[in-house]
Amino acid sequence: MMKKIATRDAYGRALAQLGGEKADVVVLDADLAKSTKTIDFAKVYPDRFFDMGIAEQNLMGTAAGLAAVGKIPFASTFAMFATGRAFEQIRNSIAYPKLNVKIAATHAGITVGEDGASHQTVEDIALMRVLPNLTVIVPADGPETEGAIRWAAEHKGPVYIRLGRLGVPVINDEASYQFTPGKAVTLRQGKDVSLIATGLMVSVALEAAEALAAEGIEAEVLNIHTIKPIDAEAILDSAARTGCVVTAEEHSVIGGLGSAVAEVLGEGQPVPMGRVGLKDTFGESGKPDELLKKYGLTADAVANAARRAMARKG
Amino acid sequence: MSEAITQRLESTARQIRRHIIAMTHAASSGHPGGSLSAADMVTALFFKEMRIDPQNPQWPDRDRFVLGKGHAAPVLYAALAERGFFPAEELKGLRQAGHFLQGHPDMKKVPGVDMSTGSLGQGLSAAVGMALGLRLDNKDARVWAILGDGELQEGQVWEAAMAAAHYKLDKLAIFIDDNGLQIDGPVKEVMSSYPIVDKFQAFGWNVIEIDGHSMTAILEAIETAKAVTGRPTCIVSHTVKGKGVSFMEDQVGWHGTAPNAEQAAIALKELQ
């Protein structure tokens, strides 16, 4: 059994470490510090932690003001409320003036589980991807989260980092993993189909590739941790090699990774394509694993989509 | 306050008002009414109170200013130009394609603008963040903001008001430009934001109520705000939309309409 860690846990740990290294790092939360794990930072650096209460619009605006006077604010709450409730604050007070705010939002996607659809955002990537100046990152596991958080703290400019509640397999080496923004990570090479995934669906895509290999199908697996700017070159190269593509994400198939990849392929290398994700639907209450199964976010679903895409090759 | 100082500031405020008329006329668009109502407060801040350096707009120790009611950009641009942040000739480029003077303040384009605003209700949050950050760095700098009375209808203002009092931001003070009018009509008819004084008091602020066109009252209120500790200050300023131009005063139609050549000429004459 592979080791599992939730990306929110990796975030809390990275943030507490960063606090000791960079005096300008400040953290804001909206009454969810125990859930988002910003509590790890708050315990060690209480003077630099601001609980803004249940007020996400002011959370984002205050983070913008802190950035305007030279701080490096990490603003955290659930992804639903960060990107939905405070969308316009992110647009007008953070992205438009290009302020140095890091929006690290947890509990994204349906694996929030029992809390149900009101708390499960499957739209946040779409909402953040459309904003100019904003870098959008969806780490696949713990080591990638730590790398992304460290990079974000060094980078000058607004960043959105999508994190999850559920423990997910650690697929990258904790000691040696280097996060390179905007660069796809090829986790497996193959010539028959490209599986392009993000977030927790990266490990699911690896599982699917394993199953396909048993049938003699060689799947290439790309981890797109940076949704924006997207690594168009890696996507086009892979599509040229394999001739068909399947995307996989814990997000609506509208506006997320699938859309981003379709845009790249449509303009550069049209090939048969399938998208695994939520099919224009809200989630519901349930255990994360049950929900992943119900909404088709499984290795089986990815493998099936791969077979269908391959069948459409010329 | 010496009479000479208030007279000098009143003269500067008239000059700012002339710029507002000239630039909105040149742009054939913009918001003269709410710019004119805020002119005296802006003048007191930029020409008497705030520690700022036109030669070094990004000076880290400077006082900050946030124009919550960003549509009053002309009054801010006029003050910045008169203060020497950029040449006054640039004011006629307001709202023109390719020119740096955007319809609403853009901190990335306009020297001296500390926060991009325009979407109402967001400015006070940024001011709260600035005050928190400056305090962390043990800086002496103050944060000033001007909000509209209509702007108080935005819920985010009250989130920020709660936070400012909670964090005891005594280096933060705001003016409410209470001119009583918004686009659709009188504030009290569209969606009353009154009583403003009681609301800010209930939120834990120090509140001062003044005539927003009395330079003496504005300067006194600023001094009072600076002396208060442990609480932010809200200066509720009773103002007249379109102040200084007879045919614009208290007329809601001048919220977002630019004067034509004939109207501008009359206005400029009145503002001599």
UniProtKB/TrEMBL annotation, chain A:
Keyword flag Acyltransferase: no
Keywords from the UniProt entry: Thiamine pyrophosphate
Domain of life: Bacteria
Cofactor (UniProt): thiamine diphosphate
Residue ranges annotated for the Transketolase-like pyrimidine-binding domain, each copy included: 5-170
CDD domains listed in its UniProt record: TPP_PYR_DXS_TK_like (cd07033)
Pfam families in the cross-refs: Transket_pyr, Transketolase_C
InterPro entries, sorted: PDH/Transketolase, THDP-binding, Transketo_C/PFOR_II, Transketolase-like_Pyr-bd, Transketolase_C
Protein family according to the UniProt entry: Belongs to the transketolase family.
The name this protein goes by in its record: Transketolase family protein
Automatic annotation (TrEMBL), chain B:
UniProt keyword annotations, A-Z: Thiamine pyrophosphate
Keyword Magnesium assigned: no
Cofactor(s) needed: thiamine diphosphate
Span of domain Transketolase N-terminal: 13-265
Keyword Methyltransferase belongs to the record: no
Organism domain of life: Bacteria
Membership in a protein family: Belongs to the transketolase family.
UniProt-recorded name of the protein: Transketolase
Source species: Heliomicrobium undosum
